[in-house]
Amino acid sequence: MRLFRSLLANAGFGRRVVACIGAGIGIALTMVVCAQVPWIEGDLPIIVAPLGASAVLVFAVPASPLAQPWPVVGGNILSTLVGVAVFQAIPNVTIAAGVAVGLAILLMSLCRCLHPPGGAAALTAVIGSAGIHDAGYAFAFAPVGINSIALVSIGIFYHRMTALSYPHQPATPAAIQAAVEPGGVRLEDIDAALAETPDAFDIAREDLTLLLERAEHFATVRRKK
Fold it and tell me: What local confidence, expressed as pLDDT, does residue 219 receive?
């Protein structure tokens, strides 16, 4: 049964069910909303495939920095624009596909809106249908931009209805200071530890600081029993 244990911390079965229902509602309502937009017509899809991946992030890991509104909207739109530009500049589709995804990651990183489905959005702009290619840069806004905004809006409403925080607000310096005990973990300690590892972690450094501090607190309480 170890194969079926949750990969995410603090993600029990109940929360997974809530995420599944939310993602289903989010995608369905996004399609309903976008179907009313008159300029999404012809060969253009009502909803683009990368939105499925965006829904996983928004509803299953709403605290992730990659799932916040700006990464979802900005990441998808900017990546699509990159994909369109690369497709028009590079005639070889194989090379264009690789360049588009690589440049999309770079641009999202520079604009602080890294969003994994953005890579799929850039790729879609390169290998998509003739209708997508004919739409050009407009494809980044309709349907991609409208899809993204609709999904984020639904996500905000749904998470409030289910008592979850979205957009996620990382722990504030005041909250960290209040939780830190004398000699406890501080934000500068987290920065020093992160500087020693080549890996990137899908959690805000402020949240990581607060989490480790509380873990240290409970460890101290346990040792005193």
Answer: 73
Residue 212, pLDDT above cutoff 70: yes
pLDDT tens digit sequence for 90-107: 999 999 999 999 999 999
Give just the sign of the alpha carbon dihedral 173, 174, 179, 183.
positive
User: Per the structure block, which two tokens stand in for 160?
Assistant: 């409030």
Task: Judge whether 122 and 107 are in contact, CB under 8 Å.
Answer: no
Query: Which two tokens mark 76?
Result: 């998808």
What six digits make up the tokens of 144? 């991609």
d(C-alpha 157, C-alpha 162), whole Å: 9
* Pair of tokens at residue 88: 């028009």
User: Could you give the CA distance from residue 165 to residue 73 in angstroms, rounded to a whole number?
Assistant: 18
198 Cβ partners below 8 Å, 6+ apart? Answer: none
Helix (H, G, I), strand (E, B) or coil at 20: helix
Residue with structure tokens 């994994």?
116
Report the Cα–Cα distance between both ends of the chain, in Å, rounded. Answer: 33
Q: Please give the Cα distance from 99 to 110 (Å, whole number).
A: 16
Assessment of whether the complete model's pTM goes beyond 0.70: yes
Q: DSSP assignment, residue 197? A: -
Which residues have a Cβ under 8 Å from the Cβ of 127 and sit 6 or more positions away?
Answer: 93, 97
Reported as a single tens digit per residue, the pLDDT across 140-175 is 999 999 999 999 999 999 999 998 889 998 877 776
d(CA 145, CA 123): 16
